[in-house]
DNA sequence: ATATCATATAAGCATATACTTATATAATTG
DNA sequence: CAATTATATAAGTATATGCTTATATGATAT
């Protein structure tokens, strides 16, 4: 059984607008860092630090391919996170709330 | 549709050990402030401030009876909170993790 | 090898958070 | 009425958080 304080620490990570959007987007597919930087109109270090926190608590995992690092969900053992993400809107809705369209995103 | 940032703000409130325990206990029944003070071995203002935050975001509601104020869940319209609390252990488990037994609690 | 691109880390800073103690408010009791 | 009990609020403080800018690391391409 997972500790209450451990669950709270994980939920705290969901309690940030940017991280919650990141996780919701990751429901659909893996994304690389530069895509998030474009989408959120936020500095690259800011995104990187959010992802590091998520990785540190085992909520996402990374997958390096070439110079890109792709992130994906790692919540098979965390039913309460799955339960939240199940209730979240789809990527399109998230992206429209961020006032961006996915078609603009290019990392080369 | 609820705003992403609004959902994040609500989840942030769940991301605290004390508040998460409070909400999990409230699944079972309503509790009054003094019970929480006993259970959490924390100052009365600390508990009161946690409850105020939860009330401010409409996650709990209060019910005054005599000199006591009872709190209960108000999450019918917040499926993502219901989803989290559904995954939480029962009151007995929470209380044992707090190293207290419910039988000790007396407010008079 | 050097230049470029993608990502990570470090340091600094402004604000948010979760407590504390002291005090106020309100209901209950003698 | 005064004393007690339950709760709320205010003010202060230490720590956490989320950004910033600067810099480091590492892969790719010329």
UniProtKB/TrEMBL annotation, chains A, B:
<keyword id="KW-0805">Transcription regulation</keyword>
<keyword id="KW-0804">Transcription</keyword>
<dbReference type="GO" id="GO:0003677">
    <property type="term" value="F:DNA binding"/>
</dbReference>
<dbReference type="InterPro" id="IPR001845">
    <property type="entry name" value="HTH_ArsR_DNA-bd_dom"/>
</dbReference>
<feature type="domain" description="HTH arsR-type">
    <location>
        <begin position="1"/>
        <end position="92"/>
    </location>
</feature>
<dbReference type="Pfam" id="PF01022">
    <property type="entry name" value="HTH_5"/>
</dbReference>
<dbReference type="GO" id="GO:0003700">
    <property type="term" value="F:DNA-binding transcription factor activity"/>
</dbReference>
<keyword id="KW-0238">DNA-binding</keyword>
<dbReference type="InterPro" id="IPR011991">
    <property type="entry name" value="ArsR-like_HTH"/>
</dbReference>
<dbReference type="InterPro" id="IPR036388">
    <property type="entry name" value="WH-like_DNA-bd_sf"/>
</dbReference>
<dbReference type="InterPro" id="IPR036390">
    <property type="entry name" value="WH_DNA-bd_sf"/>
</dbReference>
<dbReference type="InterPro" id="IPR051081">
    <property type="entry name" value="HTH_MetalResp_TranReg"/>
</dbReference>
<protein>
    <submittedName>
        <fullName>Transcriptional regulator</fullName>
    </submittedName>
</protein>
């Amino acid at each position: 059984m997972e500790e209450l304080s451990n669950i709270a620490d994980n939920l705290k990570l969901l309690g940030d607008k940017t991280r919650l959007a990141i996780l919701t987007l990751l429901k659909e597919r893996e994304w690389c860092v530069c895509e998030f930087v474009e989408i959120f109109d936020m500095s690259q270090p800011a995104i990187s630090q959010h992802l590091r926190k998520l990785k540190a608590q085992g909520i996402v995992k990374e997958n390096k391919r070439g110079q890109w690092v792709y992130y994906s969900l790692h919540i098979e053992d965390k039913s309460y996170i799955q339960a939240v993400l199940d209730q979240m809107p789809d990527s399109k809705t998230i992206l429209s709330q961020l006032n961006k369209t996915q078609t603009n995103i290019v990392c080369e």
